[in-house]
Amino acid sequence: MTPDVLAPLDLAFWNIESDRQPMHLxxxxxxxxxxxxxxxxxxxxxxxxxxxxxxxxxxxRDALLPFGGAVRAPDADFDPARHVHLACVARDFHAAxxxxxxxxxxxxxxxxxxxxxxxxxxxxxxxxxxFHHALADGLRALxxxxxxxxxxxxxxxxxxxxxxAPAVRRPxxxxxxxxxxxxxxxxxxxxxxxxxxxxxxxxxxxxxPALTAxxxxxxxxAGVVVDIDDVHRIRKHTGGTxxxxxxxxxxxxxxxxxxxxxxxxxxxxxxxLIPVSRRxxxxxxxxxxxxxxxxxxxxxxxxxxxxxxxxxxxxxxRNKEAGPNRGAGAVALLADHxxxxxxxxxxxxxxxxxxxxFDILVTSVPLPGIGLRLGGCPLxxxxxxxxxxQGQSLAVAVSTYRGNVHxxxxxxxxxxxxxxxxxxxxxxxxxxxxxxxxRS
Length: 440
Prior knowledge:
Helix content is 35%, strand content 21%. It is α+β, with helices and mostly antiparallel strands.
C-alpha cells in the first residue's frame, strides 16, 4: 500500500481536534449472545480480521509535500491488540460507551478502536467502533466495520461487458477554456457559500443554553429505537420523506425536553446542519470524506407537531432544490479552497468557529438491509454517534436497520446530564406525530 495524501476536508478534521473535542465518530452495536464466551470470541475475531482490512492498517502522518499536508500510510508496526479491547462486564452499554467516547484516539497509530462490552445478563454483548473522521466518514466507517464482521453471502456473479479503451485526449482551446471556467466557477461557489454563511450568522440569537456550552471533554450517550412502519405511516399521511419525519421528531423532542427542564422553547429555532454525502462509487479518495450539507432552522418554537413537520419539509425541499453545493450548509466544501498549511495553522481557529455556523448536528448513516453477524451472533441494534463540535452540547445520528430506526444521541455529559430524558422525549414525539397524522 502506498501513502495516500489526505483530501482537504480530511486534513481539516485532523487539525481541528483537541483533547476536549476529539474528532472521532462511533457506532454501538448490540448483539444477541449465544454463549457466555460470545464476547471474548467476538474480540478475538475482530482482532484477527482487522489484519486483513487494508484501511485499518493505515496511520496518518505529516508529509513533506504538499507543505503542511498529511498522508495515510501503512503502519509497519500494526498490532491489532492495540486497537481491539475486551472490556469488563457492562451493566449499561450506553454508560460505558459514553466514557469510551470521551477518550481521544492515539494519533501515532491507525486512528480507530473497537471495544467489546460483555453484558451483565450474559444474553447480549455490545461492540463500540470508533473511527477518526479523518480516516472515514459514515459510509467509509461502515465499509471498514463490515470488513471485520462475519462474511455476507456473495451475490451471483454478473457478466461484465468489456470496457472500451479510454480515448487519448490532447489539450485543445475548448478544453483549456473549460478548465478556466470550472476554476472561476469554483471561486464563485466559494464566495456564494461564504455569503450564505455570513447571512446565517447575522442576527444570530442563542438558541437555548442547553444546546451550547463550553467544552468539558465529557461524553454521555443514549439510544432510541423506533419502528420504521410507524414513520412510514406518518409520512403517508403528511407527505415528504422519512428523513423529514425523523428531523421533525428531533425538533419536537427538543421542545418537550426544554419544557421539562423549565426552559421555554418559545423563540428557539436552532440551526441544524444536515450532512449530505457526495461520495461516488469510483471516488478518487475512497477513504476520504466527501461531504456537503444542508442548514435548516429546527422549529422548536412551533407547538403544533404537524406544523413542525411541514416547516421542516419546506426547508429541506428548498435546500434540495438549491443542491448540496450551495448555501451555508455547504461550508465543508470551503476546505477544498484552503492550502494544507492553512489547515494546519488555522485548525484551532476553525474549531472555535463551528459554534458560529450551526447549533446542532443531525446526520443519517445508512446501514445494509441484510442482517449482520459477528461470530454467528446476530446484530440486534446499532446506534451511530457523531463527533461534537466545539461549543456544542448535542449531536444526533440516525440509522435504519432491519425494520427499525435507531437514534444515537451523544452529548457533553456536564452540559446535558439528563440525556435519557431527551431520548424519552424523542420516543414520545414519534408517538404524538403518529396520533396527529391519524387525526389529520
